[in-house]
Amino acid sequence: MSERSQIIAKVLELIEPFNKKGVEVSEATRFAQDLEWDSLTVLDFVANIEDEFDVIITMNMQAEIETVGQLVDALEKLKA
Amino acid sequence: MTDLFSKFDPLIEQRETLLETGITDPFNLVMEEVESPTVAICNGRRTILLGTYNYMGMTFDPDVIAAGKRALDEFGSGTTGSRVLNGTYGGHKACEEALKDFYAMDHAMVFSTGYQANLGVISTVAGKDDYIILDIDSHASIYDGCALGNAQIVPFRHNDIEALEKRLKRIPAGAGKLVVLEGVYSMLGDIAPLKEMVAVSKANGAMVLVDEAHSMGFIGENGRGVAEAQGVIDDVDFIIGTFSKSVGTVGGFCVSNHPKFEILRLVCRPYVFTASLPPSVVATAATSIRKLMDSADKRAHLWENSKRLHAGLRQLGFTLGTEEPQSAIIAVIMPDLEKGAAMWEALLHEGLYVNLARPPATPAGMTLLRCSLCALHSEEQVGEILGMFAAAGRATGCIS
After folding, report:
1. Residues of chain A contacting B166 with CB distance shorter than 8 Å
2. pLDDT digits (tens, 9 = 90+) for B9-31
3. B19-56+295-396 belongs to CATH 3.90.1150.10
4. Counting CB atoms within 10 angstroms of each CB, which of B23, B97, B221, B251 has the fewest?
5. Which residues of B71-82 are buried (b: 16+ CB within 10 A; e: fewer)?
């Protein structure tokens, strides 16, 4: 697997416990509109992502991240 | 033309649906007369006040009122100017002296509101490449301070020491760090584990700001707040506070021992670009702060009230925000907004005012009936309050 596909696989795995509605998740899936996450869910999910990848995703960065694909892009950059 | 107000439609609709049931608007109450810190006339009815943050009951203190009247006579109704131009009177300096004495700190800066104190200090102290690490349940004024500045914002789970530590350790080496905490969190009335959190912050090279708005005057041996009670006040870089709770008027402040603190008076925009507090307000604040230094008996009575209300409400079968009373705020958790609004109205009919709190002000989407006690609530009043909760709770089906 390429590094990007590894990141995607991990992100999808971490989304699953919070995917209460069983939405089909792709890179185009939007956290707020499609997954319908509230701010506390976002906090918990981001904390898990941060722990898994050992990075910080500031609220400033979160404001720019709407979709799963954008999160993966951000993680690629942070890990580079 | 796009109506810029259409974004408010969902809220307008929710309000209309609620008010159509004939319920009194919980966010539109008028106090027609105020008899004392604990009693007012609302809708023509004598009402016990249990939602005012007037913790120490200083609003009708005779010395405080006399000081305000004197300042009004001698200095006029307002300053009409910024603190850095024509808006600093003797009274503002006297008020800052009172704060320095109260907290035993080197510097004090008075703002026009507590909101502006957080807005100003947080947005000014943390610059573009600095990091602000804050509790997710922080007050709106803290978030707005972050939004006004340019720092990188990193939230962590409420009161979670390990989550704070992990984030501190991941911040790039050499970056400036400001950890923002509150002594008492006002929605549930719970306190922060400041002892551990301040230690972790210091060990990781961060400066620490603690908002003690809801603890001043009665938590800690000298009423300096949760940081004092937990023995870490000397390691806190900035304490933010307000005059609109225990002090009993309006205004905000920051106290600090930082040697360069005074420069904030020139660079802090919410301090510079607004009019200073009226002379009567700073005179009442200074008098009240000095009286609060010597109020051990009132503090003890307030704690008694808090413990009794907490135990009594629990016995009646209400779900509360904390297992034990940790402050003068007791939050009663309601199942939803409709039930909360019905209970709020039933209490008002009984003759009791509490705060109805709902999202986004509350954590986890909760609806709360928030009670804040006063040192001047008598034992009899606390008994009456419990009776009203019992009656209203049964009438609305909140308890059996």
Report:
1. 50-51
2. 999 998 899 889 888 888 888 99
3. yes
4. B221
5. bbeebeeebeeb
